[in-house]
Amino acid sequence: MEAESLHLEVDYVGSSGTILSPEQKAALQTSLVILKNNQKFNRVYYWGKILGVKDDYFIAQGIGKDEMNDKTTLYSKDCVNWNLLPPATDAMKKTSRLAKGRFTGDPSYEFEHVEVKKTYGENDEVQEEEETIPIKEEDRLASVISDIDNDVSIVPRAAFIKRPAGQVVKNRSFEGLTVQEAAKLSSYMHFRDAVKLNEKTLLQRANLDKAIDFLDIIEEDIPKGSWSLQFERGSGLVTLRSLLWLGYVFYHVPGTRKFGCVYTGTGEKNQDLPFML
Amino acid sequence: MEDSEFNESYYSNAKSYLLTCSTDTGANLYDHLSHLLTKILIGTPADPLATLEEDSRDAKKCRVTSDPQQLRDQWHFDHKWNLASKQIKLFQKHDHNPSTPESEDEDILPNLMRIAHYFELSGEGIQREEMFRIWLAMNQFLSSELYPIENIRLWGKVLGTRRNYIVLEAELSETEDEETNLEQTSTPLNSPVNCQGGTQDTESDIDSDVIPTTIYRPPPVIPAEQSGTGVNKKTYFVCNEPGEEWIRLPDVTPAQIVCARQIKKFLSGDVNALVISNPPFPGHEMNYLRAQIARISASTVISPQGVYKFDEEAEGEEEEGRDSYVPDPDFEGLTMAELADPEIRYWVHHVPYILPQGRTKWFNPVHLKHQEEMDEGEEEDEEREEADEPEPEVGPPLLTPILEDEDIDGAPPWVAHYSTKLVPEYAVAILHSSLWPGAHAFAVEQGKYFENIYIGWGMKYTATHLEPVLPPLPQLEFPSGPETTEDEDPTPEVEAAWRKRQQEWARKMEEEAEAAEEEESDEDDY
Question: What value of ipTM does the predicted structure carry?
Fold first, then answer.
């Protein structure tokens, strides 16, 4: 959610158990402004909180010109001092998925993943080599945030448009979804480079508006039912909770431009999702 | 003459065209223009051309027209309005029942806003407006006096896929009949077929083909604990939104707890929904929710050490363990450092541990077996299996410190924080559970004021993935017996010998028959 309206918008996610204490709200309001200035961001978002065993990490993202690709992620333990996280590369993500268990809360902690490699030596002997792959907690943090953004970060349809040059910017004439539209999963789209869109046939793509429908809709997510859509306050607020990454909440007030998302959780994917539905 | 007739027809056409009424207002252009020109000629404004359009508009406005749209605006059904109208009732003051004194109600209702305030300081909980509505709903529930409630507190909020649950925990003063409670437990969906299994009666009925019966005997059903004791000490009420009616959850049976431990399912928000799982859950979502609430309470409802102590006056039940506690009036308090101790030495559980059997007190299933056998009263010559006295299951006793809880993969089961490091004099000690993410407890005032809450999905944390129970293997083959074992085909010699025997036997029968006839004829002769 946007840092400027943080203290108002955090009320919208309160019903999912995500609240900020007055101290945290006050600290964030101050430190995010300083952060924006120092790092010359266009906009700063409060991304969420990753709970560690001993301590929690508060995550913020700064956006440059391009909303989708120009993102910088920072973390803090006390909402005041922010540290930059390295951008997550594919190799980093691959090794980070091997680390199991919760985050410890100490950014310099190293997880150790032991891989047993069987090599066939001479005379067909099976030799087992144990390779310990160290995974730094910071790297794991960056990869998890990138994974969450990739998997579950969503926006309402027509909230962002793609300029002819390819930049993704906010749509100034977005007035919000109607209540009927907000009840359908097809009105929400993944905020990432489209994957399923390219697999659609030309006939299906003919009716889409290239400026608006350049993202995947969440209705086609597998497994079906991995999003929980609920109306709070009658029809005054629609909340989408992801069941794949438990703790991710997206909210939208139908009829207005307000929408946003936040993640509060342990930073672990819910691998048992198909059993739980 | 023709010209003038022509002109006249032109003129009349033109005039009738100008006289056509407009469909909107019923006026026509001819009248409007004549009216306008008359106005201009009377008024003689300075620049008639510049103000022509405005004058024309004014002329149209002056005309009184009736609105053809006589329909009233249709009122549009709105969910927002629906919910708001339910919740507005919460905000109406209730008159207390004159028979019960007011002071009773005031004692029971906890100061939820104070609790919400401390949780908010620690960064946990749900937002204040919703807490306030829940508080009002609690108040309304108490004053409606449907149930004889002694104690009540907000247990927490459980999120579901379609709707959420708000859960209240209450202690009822009178124990109701067990029957009324168990009636609410819905019939099990896939109850194991209770075969009258048993003994291989090989002697009886060889004539008809006997379908082999199974030798499976379902394990004895362990009875649930009575309402008001053990797992069912407290009663739980749920609703989806504050303002709706509170639904009472039925008591939980050990079978439900055992099954709930093996499955992991999301709640949908509808108490009557089916829980489709393997092993099949004996009940509906209300039973599953109740089982999860029981497990969460047993693991995560804690209090600072010393607040409660064992009741000295209760009769010594040293073997089974003490199960009641009372507030200790001599509790001196703990310092903030002790309350937020990272080792968590100073907090204890005050809800009894649930044994693997599904109860808090061990129940010997052998008793049940003997009871069954006595009921049947049959005297079959069964070989009584040696009654293996199963070992009684033991769990940690009540008021065990959390220190003794098991770690999860090396991570501590509880994590303690201060709510603020900047103002330590007024900090709140807050504990989060790692085993059940979403369970929190806080303490202030040296431990004298504390509370627990659960806000989450109702799932236990497992470091490894869920390993679902596989369905049992089907019975492979018929049990081997004389009818099902293959015999070897007879060899030609054996066949020849048999044939010979048959012929001899046939001949013998003939001779005997002849002999019998002769005797008969002899008899007849006499």
Answer: 0.87
